[in-house]
Amino acid sequence: MEIRLEEREFSNGDVYSGQLRGTLPHGKGKYAWSDGIIYEGDWEEGKISGKGKITWLSGAKYEGDFSGGYLHGFGTMTSPDGSVYSGSWRMNVRHGLGRKEYCNSDSYDGSWREGLQDGSGSYTWTNGNRFIGNWKKGKMSGRGVMSWGNGDLLLKLKWGKKVRFVVMGNMFCTELKIHRRYDLKGSTQGRFTEKNKIREKTTMKDLDLAYEFHMDKLLREALFKQILLDCSFLESLQIIDYSLLLGLHFRAPDQLNDILEPPNEMSDQESDSVASVEVGLPREPSIPPKGLLLVTHEPNSVNTAPGPHIRGSTLRAFAAGEKEVDLILPGTARLRVQLGVNMPAQAHHKLHQDQEESGTVELFEVYDVVVYMGMIDILQEYNMKKRMEHTCKSIQYDPMSISAIEPTLYAKRFTDFLLKVFPETA
């Protein structure tokens, strides 16, 4: 039967304009109901079928698949309140996989059944809380993991037991290779690593650290401002046993000597990773190497965007006129300098002391390093178990040398130790 274009106005005030086969809409057409509803799209023998768009007088609209006059298939519905559902439909109701963004910015992504969340799905609240798990008739039901915006997670196991845990970002997921890593608490009892156990990725401890790190005045101020705030907060919660996880990228790792690691433990890959930079390390501390440069920050010039674990704005440096800065590694990269990320420093390693008639002369090796760091292990309360540990170990060891001490003393010892590790430059 021939298909023709025509416009028809019905006695009830409805209007159709488009293709007809006989007396029925068929093909492309637009239908406007007298109550303000408008549909424009595909028709099949008088029924809405195929692709199309329908709008209601309330402001709601749907665009997607239709079948036999129903919302059926895949489509997007925008409600008058601004909420948006995009996903599968069956006979005018949400059914199958889909995502809904609510007017308050909450969102659900997962399975639907007869218009309700049902099956596996993830619901995210605007405050950052999130549930991933099973749903039944629009409610959380069965197994799942609940995470809070502060990083806490709650896992409900099969037999009903609830386990809380925290997932933290990997601070060493960096553009530069980490050559040395340290876990620093400020305590000394047992805080060393046996030399024969040191490997390329071994995390060493306080007594293994043989360096002082000298950095730009403003970078150091920003670092200790945050450390003091963190320690004050943890102290208020009666938390101890936290550490500063410190990662070092050396600009010339091939020149590290036996003081840094046991013989034959240096990985060949380490020297390969910086093969493009040939910087000699002078022995005189008064002539430090210039393998790192701080320049004014240019957002479009940095090599990569910050990772998801990185917080805070670009730092300012005294050496750049108190402007936000990028770190340039000649021949390698240009990186954004942020708190605990891509922070340049000079690592001073004391070799020995020469005795002369005029006094003692201290000799150092100086290395250019890029520093990465952050606070870890922040969940241990100073509870009865830790109090007992402190009492027992204090009988055998110096009470200030052990890790388990009262939170106020722990915070002070921790910051005092880091002030020595990152001394103020004259």
TrEMBL record:
SMART domains tied to this protein: MORN, PIPKc
Sequence ranges assigned to domain PIPK in this UniProt record: 1-422
Listed GO MF terms: 1-phosphatidylinositol-4-phosphate 5-kinase activity; ATP binding
Keywords: ATP-binding, Kinase, Nucleotide-binding, Repeat, Transferase
EC number from the UniProt entry: 2.7.1.68
SUPFAM superfamilies: Histone H3 K4-specific methyltransferase SET7/9 N-terminal domain, SAICAR synthase-like
Any single biological process term in GO: phosphatidylinositol phosphate biosynthetic process
Lineage: superkingdom: Eukaryota
PROSITE patterns: PIPK (PS51455)
One Pfam family this sequence matches: MORN
Gene3D superfamilies: 2-Layer Sandwich, Histone H3 K4-specific methyltransferase SET7/9 N-terminal domain
Cellular-component GO terms for this entry: plasma membrane
Protein name: 1-phosphatidylinositol-4-phosphate 5-kinase
Organism annotation: Brassica cretica (Mustard)
